[in-house]
Amino acid sequence: MATLDFNTTFSVDETPNAVFNAINNVRGWWSENIEGNTAQLNDEFIYQFKDIHRCTMKLIEVIPDEKVVWLVLDNYFNFTEDKTEWTGTQIEFNIAEMENKTQVYFVHQGLVPAYECYDICFDSWNGYIKKSLMSLITTGKGTPNPRETVI
Known about the structure:
Elements: E1 6-12, H1 16-24, H2 26-29, E2 35-36, E3 44-49, E4 53-63, E5 67-77, E6 90-98, E7 101-109, H3 118-139
Antiparallel strand pairs: 1-7, 2-3, 3-4, 4-5, 5-6, 6-7
């Protein structure tokens, strides 16, 4: 059964442990502006991109080398009518060995086409997951949002 939730997948020639560690290095692939801890169960962190997007995540499931799940505790978009569209959704990374490769299956549960932000978020998640995270896993260097200086 197909899901309407945003999802994407990719495979790499790296171990599940290398993939798991890269996923938890959120500053290495999503944003250098992450504030807080990003690797242990119940850790909370804040993502912010300029005055456009801000959210607070909580790690609600962490199974080493297999799965990481974030709960969006709160969210703000400056470009949608409903500023809190992501609040209460879950972001899930599933890691599995398949045919001598490690597969990453990413799903943002609750991010559906009916959301006003869906098209922008679709493009953004694809860039962060299939380009930046994949690059961090395969080359050791992702392309996260650079650190912003707050004046």
